[in-house]
Specification:
single chain, mainly alpha, flat
């Protein structure tokens, strides 16, 4: 993920994850329906209750970091 270094990194991570969770098939008409973009070549389907829980949190930075790390790890384990 292309996140800025320093103090803006957490805000950028939260913005990226929020954008991923709010995206749906209407953003890309030719793509199959999914909840998150395939920035790593993988669609991430997030159940609505988990999506709502994240979006209602006041402090999302730790959860955003966790999700982005999990996606990066998953991508690193896939064969090329």
């Amino acid at each position: 993920f292309d996140l800025p270094a320093g103090k803006d990194k957490k805000a950028a991570a939260v913005a990226l994850v929020t954008q991923m969770l709010r995206r749906d098939a209407s953003d890309t008409p030719s793509a199959p329906a999914r909840d998150a973009p395939d920035a790593l070549g993988t669609a991430v389907n997030v159940p609505p209750p988990l999506k709502d829980m994240f979006l209602s949190e006041r402090k999302r930075d730790d959860r955003s970091d966790c999700l982005l790390q999990a996606l990066a790890f998953y991508a690193s384990q896939r064969p090329l």
